[in-house]
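Sample log: Cob(II)alamin adenosyltransferase.
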Amino acid sequence: MNKTTRVYLVGAGPGDSGLITVKGKRCLQRADVVLYDRLCNPALLGDVSPAAEQIYVGKNMGHHALPQEQINALLVEKAGEGKVVVRLKGGDPFVFGRGGEEIDTLAEAGIPFEVVPGVTAGFAAGAYAGIPLTHRDFTTSVTLVTGHVNTRKNAQRDIDWPALGRGHGTLVFYMGLTNIATICDELIRHGRAADTPMAVVSHASTPQQRTLIATLADAPQQVAQQGVTSPAVILVGDVVTLHERLDWFQRRLTPEATSAQPQPKASATTPQDDSARTNILIFTGNGKGKSTAAFGMALRAVGHGQRVRILQFMKNDPDVGELAALERLGVPLEQCGLGFVPKPEHPLYAAHRDAAEHGLARAEAAIFSGNHDLIILDEVCGSVARGLLDEHKVVDVLRRAPAPLTLVLTGRHAGPALIDLADTVSEIQPVKHAFEQGIPARKGVEF
């Protein structure tokens, strides 16, 4: 192990990539290996060297890319290779982030480490929703609580509900959306008034932030009716009443949300400079040639000296001609799939979904890096059609793409939201195919 070997546990902040610390950003820039979570803003990966190894270790309810024990072992393994390792964790590493377990493993293995704090989601949710967690006119205390209550065995396990019910300070529940009914019931049962104000802040500090204001009595019903989604933070206490007056972030978003809607296309008689805007093209349909058309566009862009990046969803085949050709042209092509996608009930389907979500995170990082003129998301439409990706999440990434940039999407069954957002959509339909005549796939044609 050399003198530079070190593991940095870096807090990525709650969602807004600008909330990472200066030191955290510097750690990413010098990292040889980055292990990052699902809730880390993918734009932060734009600071990572292209030569660095990036490993997705995200966790979602019901399935994990890697179990925690394997993450711990991977940190030890990579540091043991003499590398600078960054463990990038959403929010703050030591606030419900299992950072303590990770550095305990490192300490036991004798590996040097440092912890770089981050803005924890609870604090960001309060700040971005205009809800001060402490206020001299309301309360001088705040309590952070895990929302992962065990409803099947004993709802009181690990949570001191009587103490929370008796207190008057602000309560901040992390990861509690699925258990919100239990949380509200327990707080009321142990002394909190049913009309105590509650805020549920989802996707805090991002353009997708939504704040639901309710009470302990009606919050579960309101959450269900309005379709609030994770990640979400639950704030309980009288300070929630300040939201209506102090909600600066949503007011700032309002004009942006309006301008983010698809704009009317210019008429044929109205000249428009496309070089200063984001241009989205889709090749879809059941015919052959969708990816081929996109690769042809990449070739044309390279000929004009443009910077091209290609990410392939669902595909995982090293023996294809485009990989070798693009390598010679200096165009990076990253395969983000696992190959043939099984039916949703298949045990491996979740792994394919994780791979697609990882690919979307990589695509978002590329889009916001400022390092490319043309980005191709090959088979992303097919990934949406097969349920591997949420169409609205893909649309959100594309809608926020900075100009000038050209984005090319391919794949069967392009959804209506993607088609509505795009500037150009071409549908390729089959007339006849060599396969029907018993002609096998040929190098240079099919692959």
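Observation: The first strand starts at residue 6 and ends at 11.
Observation: The chain is about 30% helix and 20% strand.
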